[in-house]
Amino acid sequence: MKASLSDQRQILDVAAFDQKTTALNHTASTLPELAELVSTTTKSHNARDLRIAAETELSDVKRELLRAEADVEQIVTRITRDEARLSGGSASPKELEQLQHEVGTLNSRRSELEEVELEIMMRVDEIKARIEDLQGQEAAFTEQINELNIRKENALARINGELESIAKERTETLAAVSPELIALYEKIRSTNNGTGAAALVAGACTGCHLSINTVELKRISEISEDEVVRCEECRCILVRGA
Fold first, then answer.
1. For residue 34, how many other CB atoms are within 10 A of its CB?
2. Which of 69, 168, 184, 190 has the highest count of CB atoms within 10 angstroms of its CB?
3. Contact 241/5 with Cβ under 8 angstroms?
4. What does pTM read for this prediction?
């Protein structure tokens, strides 16, 4: 296949555009913000799940507190009633003795229940503090996520701007290249990890970075400059004098 040296050099420019495009797309897909977003979002979801679990626990403990308060209230009511009978003086000595014993027992029971009530109240306070801490974590993570999204979008905007500029230059360059050479280049590129053309520099192909043997170099030097040469190793278009 033949192609002017100008066409060959321009197809090499196209290859450079394609390499830049590949590199930019890789940069876009591996932005550090993307990994940070995944990590921070996971942490945010974990904090949210822990908060929801804590809120459910708080509801349960509050119901437990209501039961404890009701138990204390019931004991207080009975103590008040018995103390009223004791101070009324209408009961017999035996009844008074029984009432005094019952009041003593009820007061002991009241102390026990109030200790339980206090423990439950302390649990309520602890859970509330935990919920508040988790809400703070969620707010902080949300702020981090917002900042990361802004950084990501700014980075992608810069990359997309470069990609658009490269695509425009590539199109303009291809317009001046023979369709046959373009077709060959695209065919090679599609089966060669994106490399369709490379320069011959210091006896080596810049596509596969392998040195070309002396015999092949001699053969290439004797071929007319409009003859399209292929690298024996990677099969890409080998552009001389680039």
1. 15
2. 184
3. yes
4. 0.76
